[in-house]
Design a protein that fits this description.
Helices cover 22% and strands 21% of the residues. By secondary structure, it is an alpha+beta fold. The protein is globular.
Length: 389
């Protein structure tokens, strides 16, 4: 997996990280960490390190490599000189001049076209409202944990009973489509801030630069909550964000039943976020850990708690998703009733249909999902390339 990530991720903090040659493509997404172990940091960050250590959170050098270990780490960012870099900017953009590539904007994929057990193309609707079919020997879906299962369901691929309820003819019964949705549940708490004299003219770390991984009393293994800070403009307060790294109760993606005289296909989402009481207690305990660190004497009174930490019942209405959805078209071993794709990312029982996005991940990563999705994409490239040769 790490070798496939290395094909697309250029770690600027690793000396002599040379881009590997892969199918003639050398475009890679650069990542860099703002703070590294042993390097000078602003006084507020140094004091935060001290306060965190007092609460059992020592320094870690790489959040992606040590996602299960409690500690403090700078989060890798895909930004260079203040500009966000992505697969769109560093992989797709350089390929726009390739004669075999066509990018269609303002276009909706309505469904996958099947000929018995073979995917033969997709049906599109353009900005003018007209529809047309694009034929293909291999169809690769990459619409994410929400819209990839939606597209399969609209194409008649999924649980037969759910398709019947949505008024869609069942063409290929596949029970796992849409099941197993998981995300990092998050809650936030704003705390007043009074910068110390030593902070004059200096920047603080924010939510994307420094993360604290902690283990609550409900953890079933390693660290189960991620704490990060965001300083809104004006520097008069800090927002403590707590993300839950596990989700005990999975959600589900389905299609809405057709309205009277209308058609079905609309997306319905049951997130499952904080549906388990233990998840709510873990989120609240994460807030307790975070506020204890921020109000530690080592931070010289920079932050203070204004009022009480919200109770579990209050948190229910504030829990939100982190946009890290996975698992709705999972891969798995033979015999897994919820498996949608095989280890080569091919949809079970169909030819010419591949899925390459976060929906295939069977578990929720303990870090941001981008490295895992990059590995999935590279695996899909390998499979399609082998098929075409």
């Amino acid at each position: 997996m790490r070798a496939r990530i290395a094909r697309r991720i250029h770690d600027l903090d690793v000396p002599h990280d040379v881009a590997p040659h892969h199918h003639g493509v050398g475009h890679r997404i650069p990542v860099r960490r703002t703070y590294r172990v042993g390097e000078p940091v602003p006084p507020a960050v140094e004091d935060l390190f001290v306060a965190s250590a007092r609460h059992g959170l020592g320094l870690q050098d790489d959040d992606d490599r040590h996602g299960g270990i409690a500690g403090v780490c700078a989060y890798p960012q895909s930004a260079v000189d203040g500009a966000r870099r992505s697969s769109a900017s560093d992989v797709l953009e350089p390929a726009r001049g390739f004669s075999g590539l066509t990018v269609l904007g303002s276009t909706t994929v309505e469904r996958i076209v099947l000929d018995r057990e073979q995917a033969t193309g997709v049906l599109l609707t353009g900005s003018d409202g007209g529809t047309r079919m694009v034929s293909a020997g291999i169809v690769v879906l990459s619409a994410g944990a929400y819209h990839t299962p939606q597209l399969l369901l609209r194409s008649g691929i999924g649980p037969a009973d759910a398709l019947a309820n949505a008024g869609v003819p069942a063409l290929h019964h596949l029970p796992g489509v849409g099941r197993g949705l998981r995300d990092h549940a998050r809650v936030e708490l704003r705390m007043p801030m009074s910068p110390a004299p030593s902070d004059e003219g200096r920047r603080f770390g924010d939510a994307l630069r420094l993360h604290l991984r902690a283990r609550t009393s409900l953890a079933q293994g390693g660290a189960d909550v991620d704490l990060s800070l965001r300083h809104p403009k004006g520097r008069s307060s800090v927002v403590l964000m707590v993300r839950l790294l596990e989700q005990r109760t999975a959600g589900e993606i389905t299609l809405a039943a057709p309205a009277l005289g209308g058609s079905g296909g609309a997306l319905r989402v049951r997130t499952g976020l904080a549906a388990a009481e233990a998840d709510l207690f873990a989120l609240r305990e994460g807030l307790e850990i975070g506020t204890s660190i921020l109000t530690d004497d080592a931070l010289c009174g920079r932050y203070r708690l204004d009022g009480a930490i919200p109770g579990v019942r209050e948190l229910v209405s504030t829990v939100a998703a982190s946009g890290h959805g996975v698992g709705t078209c999972r891969f798995g071993r033979p015999g897994d009733p919820d498996r949608v794709v095989d280890p080569d990312l091919a949809v079970d029982g169909l030819e010419g249909l591949v899925i390459a996005d976060a929906s295939v991940l069977p578990v929720l990563p303990h870090a941001g999902p981008i490295p895992a999705v990059v590995a999935v994409a590279e695996h899909a490239v390998d499979r399609v390339w082998a098929t075409l040769r």
